Give the backbone structure.
Amino acid sequence: MSIAYLDPGNIESDLQAGSVAQFKLLWVLMSATILGLLMQRLSARLGVVSGMHLAEVCYRSYPKIPRGILWIMVEIAIIGSDMQEVIGTAIAIYLLSNQKVPLYAGVIITIADTFTFLLLDKYGLRKLEAFFGFLITIMAVTFGYEYIVVKPDQVSVLKGLFIPYCEGCGSKQVLQAVGIIGAIIMPHNIYLHSALVKSREVDRTKKEEVSEANKYFFIEAAIALFVSFIINLFVTAVFAEGFYGRNATDIGVFLGCQFGLAAMYIWAVGILAAGQSSTMTGTYTGQFVMEGFLNLKWKRWQRVLLTRSIAIVPTILVTIFSGIEDLTQMNDLLNVLMSLQLPFALIPILSFTSSKKIMGDFTNGVIMRILTGVLAVVVISINLYFVAVYIQDLPQSWAVLLAIVLAVVLYMTFVLYLVSINLSLSVGQSVCPTINS
């Protein structure tokens, strides 16, 4: 679960936040992480109390066509995350090879690393978790080293963290703030966490055991997200201090020339660890989502082959005909895409965990319902604002405008439809077993 907060999309978002807004968006990073923890808590509680993960509850709650559309939306988020992993790994290999291995070759190499993780998966989930912990440690050490070497201004760091401001910010900075939210609160991670908690045995006939499991899963998630937040903070602060106003093509120059070649290679190792570890996150999520929404089981290698193929084709075309700067822009748009998919995870998880028939005595309280409801409204509003800003940069033609208006109408129609279905859950029939049943 922690890996989804440290994948290449997050690292790239951190880099861009520092380069376009210095320390001004650190409070957005911290706020998004806290809200992410809130969502992970709800996700874990759903899995612990009901004994079913989010996709399985959706399968039992929604009609066939809306369920299919929802599955497609989640799959888009998974593929987008997979594309970010491909981009991050390719850039890391490009830097580690001193630019001798072209970007398109690095993209192709990512096919092999996927099957390496499938091999590790055979040795059990706990060993795989330990390996993930090792990769997170690599990221903490490498990015922490960069932080110590660059020595960002600590007063500016603290001001950026605790004072919500963005003086002089324009559409570029606002777009980056949206990207941070999309990179941190990832929709497919909410589906993933609700399934991962099922790997621990909990006696759901005993309320005390369920309550205890909820408490320790929350503590576990809080520690994991605190570590991921510190690493994200390291990256943002480093590039806010010395990378402000530059573009992604200058990464190697900035780190290599200003702080020595070791700094550049250490950065690349951290990115490589982020890319490698995020591979299996998408794999596991895709497996749970497909089994839950479609009641269809594929072998993991088949699932990986499908999503990785979809992710690699557009990425390799960009690397062949463009460069690292275009990959950066592509990564930014993928973060925004994640943000646009958020309602399709937020609305179900908020509704299901607020349903007495699903959660029994563990349903959300009034305060939690208000907080999460406000969060959902804010996120959807941010998405619509982004669309309005983004439209201004597109070619002004009737065809483009009509396509955008149609897309927005369809998007909002489906979001409102999901809201109406979930409101009816409070008076509907129970969809999954609870400790009360």
